Amino acid sequence: MSDIMNNEEIFSNCTEILSQIINDTSVPRNIRKAAEDSTNLLAKDEEPTIKASTVISILDDISNDPNIPIHARILIWNILSELEAVKD
């Protein structure tokens, strides 16, 4: 049961960080769109590991975008490290 709560806390934290990226107009539109897609995926009722791995895949792709501002890249790295802790 504690894993479920822990996963929910992780998803909640990630959603908060993603909303910072979504609302930051200095971040390119394609990166904000990927952050919005990730937020929508985290809100779905699916297996936690499936949600986490799907979002990791999306965010890993955009973290390598040369147009991403460094502060947004750091936020994405933080999200990636949190999502890697998600358990079944």
From TrEMBL:
Pfam families assigned to the protein according to its UniProt record, in alphabetical order: UPF0147 (PF03685)
Positions of transmembrane segments: none
Family, as annotated: Belongs to the UPF0147 family.
Protein name: UPF0147 protein CA615_07955
InterPro entries noted in UniProt: Ta0600-like_sf, UPF0147
SUPFAM superfamilies tied to this protein: Ta0600-like (SSF158436)
